[in-house]
Amino acid sequence: MCGIIGYAGPKNIESILLVGLERLSYRGYDSSGIAIISDGELSYWKKTGKIRELEKMLRNLSIKGSIGIGHTRWATHGEPNEMNAHPHLGPNKKVAIVHNGIIENFSVLKEELIKNGHIFRSDTDTEIVAHLIESYMDLGLVQAVESATTHLKGSYAIAAIAEAEPDKIVVCRHGSPLIIGLGKGENLVSSDINAILPHTKQIVLLEDDELAVITPSKVTYKIINGKAITKKSQHIRWDALTQEKSGYETFMLKEIFEQPNVIRQLISKMVVADKQIKLKHIKLGQKDLASITRIIIQACGTSWHAGLYTKYLMENYARILTEVDISSEFRYRQMLTHGNDVVLALSQSGETADTLACLREAKSKYFKVLALVNVKGSSIDRESDGVMYSYAGQEVGVASTKNYVAQLVAMYLFSLHMGRIKKLISPQELAEKISEIKRIPDHIEHILAQTDKIKAIAKKYANSQEFLFIGRGVNYPSALEGALKLKEISYIHATGYPAGELKHGPIALIDSKLPVVCIAPKTHTYEKMLSNIQEVRSRKGRTIIVASESDTELPKYADDLITIPDVSEDLTPILVAVPLQILAYEIATQLGCDVDQPRNLAKSVTVE
Ligand code: AGP
Fold this sequence. Notes:
By secondary structure, the chain is α/β, with parallel strands linked by helices. The protein folds into three domains: 3-235, Aminohydrolase, N-terminal nucleophile (Ntn) domain (Glutamine Phosphoribosylpyrophosphate, subunit 1, domain 1, 4-Layer Sandwich); 245-438, 3-Layer(aba) Sandwich (Rossmann fold), CATH 3.40.50; 448-608, Glucose-6-phosphate isomerase like protein, domain 1 (Rossmann fold). The protein is 34% helix and 24% strand. Helix 4 crosses helix 5, helix 9 (301-317) packs parallel to helix 13 (402-421) and helix 17 runs parallel beside helix 19 (572-590). It is globular.
């Protein structure tokens, strides 16, 4: 997934493109570049590394121009280096394009073009498209882009500029997002609304197989290789999300510490008068919801872990059969429907390609699709039949923290609501559970006060080569999430396992060098966890135990102990997530890793 920005207008184009790229860097940040047409001449600059490297390169150049495009990359084809950075140009360097997506037939196209004498500088699929467009430029830029797309299979969002037509940007999309911003005497295009909002709140969503011609004074639309169309604009009510660290060293740390207020805000949005749960944007009536016989949750990464947690709750409180699938798997399996099934997509960004593709596939099979997203106006938000929001605010850190905890709380409340409307939970029980979850933010604050203690533990284990995380029941997903948090920001190999599985193989890993994070708060499987911890210790494994504060037994078996306040079993994963986030954060910081933008990752994975 990459980020695209384009500007047509009289303002300082270099700064508009660079600031836009900064806002898009969550989509990929291994290299970036811009191309501008100035006095009829096409110029371009590109640089490996974060956007700031490109900024340094441009610092002393006084770049003028009214038409330009920019790109920040997450490498799909070709390693992250200058040659593979976008923009890519045609053989005569008269056309420049930026692209988000994957051209699945690029090898065949590349071979054909090489046979016709084309020479390529990069290993990317995008460069093929630039060559194709330039080869059709005798038709004019619009038709050249349209003709090029007839060769392409896969997903693309393309922005193209040409020296021969210095007054326009031609953009088109198939499978990757593009949003147009309509300003006064200026217009923009971007992969993400957030890069546009500082300039204008009047936007147009380009749909698949649509093309737009953007000049400073107007934007026209057509179907790719089809007729002209008119598009309705919409006025966005919310402001561009600010990306301020507010005094914290990193966005991730800020977002970890925002969690208490995020949960307070979420509860205030989902709970009415401390005794009722409201789902404002779920368009299904209570009768429809109560008649659901199966929920299939599909998600990726951390959101998938939240889905695994939801299964326990939904089956426990609402007695609804709940399956949980990784989106990239569910999508390519037989989606069998029987009875009244609903597919539930969980996604922070609302743009994850695998999850979005699954949602579309399920809708084509006549499933009702619900979603829980954090980003309003995202594709999954717009395309689901009913949506819940996690209200976590913008999550800039690539490693999801506050949104994960918000997902758990939202799914807890959703499961209670489903249980209530099926009359499996009494109003009294619901009120009691609401009152308990309203104390969660205070408990999180209590845990956050232990940061220094967790930091000391992190220091002790920061040079370990690998970690094992184990948990049971609702804390099996906690083990998976703890392992993912650690590996994605510290690059240390870590695995999460259901503790009961240890004896079926992973126990072979246990030795005096292996730290095992044992997630063992007071739950109905506590005794079993105690036995697993004994198994680890009898093989000299080093135990970092996460226990309930009132526990006096487990500390005897802990090399290091982290405690969480005593809460009902189903709420323990919400609390457990926080010390494991801090542990991962402190280890990664010890190792000098970039916790906000870890290598190889991006915040929103908009390619499959
Ligand atoms: C989370 O820490 C990871 N960065 C990643 O696994 C993420 O959860 C996954 O890509 C799904 O993203 P989504 O929630 O935006 O769909």
